[in-house]
Amino acid sequence: MTTHLWIDAGAGVAGDMLLAALVDAGAPLEEVQATVDAVLPGTVRLVAGEVTRAGLRACKVDVEVLAPDQPDRRWSDIRGLLDGAPISETVRTSALGVFALLARAEAHVHGVPATDVHFHEVGAWDSIADVVGAVAAVHLLGITSVSAGPVALGSGTARTSHGVVGVPAPATLELATGWQVAAGGKGELTTPTGMALIRGLTDVCEGLPTVRITASGTGAGSRDVDGRANVTRVVVGELLDAARATSGPGEPASESLWVLEANVDDLDPRLWPGVLAALMDAGAADAWLTPILMKKGRPAHTLSVLADDQHRVALRDIVLTHTSTLGVREHRVDRSSHGRRFESVTVRDQEVRVKLSLDLEGRVVHMTPEFEDVRTAAELAGIPSRVVLAEATAAAHAAGWDSYAGGPGSQCTALSATSSPSRSGP
User: Fold this and answer.
1) What is the pLDDT of residue 415?
2) Would 13 be classed as within a structural domain?
3) DSSP per-residue letters across 6-69
4) Can you give the residue range of the structural domain that contains 190?
5) Within a 10 A sphere around the Cβ of 16, how many other Cβ atoms?
6) Are residues 330 and 348 in the same domain?
7) Measuring CA to CA, which residue among 417, 397, 391, 394 is closest to residue 409?
8) H-run or E-run covering 4
């Protein structure tokens, strides 16, 4: 099962707001506290309560200090705290990634090396608790993929340790580069910590994907302003590419997948069969090449890969390492398809699988012998593949696995609509 988290930052996001939304969605506060204590022992206590923001109920998590006079910390200090803490490696890696993004953004804004960045607002105990707590909450909810919508950054000015700055703050603006954003209202709606969590946790900026919702949560910020709920919302659900659920009676199975694409004009064409085979072996639902003509008349190919959430990152890495492309485009697609089932026939003492395509009533509408099995059987028998293909097709017809096109098997009893998934897609 792919458990997806979608973050709605359309009214802004801060570290405490995201943490509160995740707790509201079901992350156990006691276990989140235990992870924070492992990083900052005896320093802070997380206290959750209900508040209203512009008339809406929301959860608010306050970080209460137990050990006063906590110092500002450098990036190396925070990295040392996380490296030495007895916490999950997944949580450690994610938290380090978020703080690394913050360090690079601050380094760019102040013109210093990242190793010399001295955190102020984001280096204090409460911000460390927000980041570690939010990352721990995602882990505790069993999230396997994350996306977020466009982010409201705010407008006007805000006071920082360096003085009054424009909103969005310079570090927030740096972290938001490449993301979809809007002003969204007055004041600082998104903090550097909130934006770093969005970029460090999420895979893509998108609207709410097609999911079967299992939980949702609303996290409040400190201010309650008229006309706009100062909240961050989260939605947790099962992506339909994992569920392969039908939308309703009479509708084909629908699933949400990814298409990964890259234009390549300088790869030895003898390498393409190996690239496609590597992608299919790694779990691609399909992979194909399209001839194209690029700028200045250069012939090239578009490599396309159809992937589910579970395999998307690994398939992207294969594209980047097995081809000469410098980047990969990614976008979601919805696929509707018939159910599928495999049966077997025996040809020349060899087993050949036959893929059956089933309609919603379980009737066979198409059948195809698996060609790899056909080729293997032909090689072992020492005969042409076309002979084995014809014999396997005839055996499938004789077994009653036929289409609506007529013939002795067309009136066979409907097969079960529960199918084994196939990696070859439309």
Assistant:
1) 37
2) yes
3) EEE-TT-B-HHHHHHHHHHTT--HHHHHHHHHHHSTTTEEEEEEEEEETTEEEEEEEEEESS--
4) 3-241
5) 27
6) no
7) 397
8) strand 3-8
d(CA 89, CA 112): 30
Predicted pLDDT at 407:
40
Amino acid at 247: S
Burial 280-313 (b: 16+ CB within 10 A, else e): beeebbbbebeeeeeeeeeebbebbbbbbbbbbe
Where the chain has pLDDT below 70, the residues are 1, 113-124, 160-162, 240-254, 360-362, 402-426
Where does a domain end: 241, 273, 289?
A: 241
pLDDT of residue 399: 83
- From 92, 289, 299, select the one nearest 200 (Cα to Cα): 92
Q: Both 418 and 302 in a single domain?
A: no
For residue 372, report the phi and psi dihedrals to the nearest 5 degrees: -65, -40
Report if residue 247 sits inside a domain. no
Structural domain contains residue 311:
yes
Q: Give the CATH number for residue 355.
A: 3.10.20.300
Check whether residue 227 and residue 141 sit in a common domain: yes
The answer on 259 and 389 residing in a single domain is no
Strands 187-188, 204-205: pairing kind: unpaired
Whole-prediction pTM value?
0.61
- Each residue's pLDDT tens digit, 202-260: 878 888 988 889 999 999 999 998 888 999 999 999 886 443 443 443 445 567 889 99
Residues 210 and 258 in one domain: no
Mapped onto helix, strand or coil, the DSSP state of residue 353 is strand
User: Is there a single domain that holds both residue 343 and residue 375?
Assistant: yes
Q: How many domains in the chain?
A: 3
| pLDDT number for residue 130 | 95
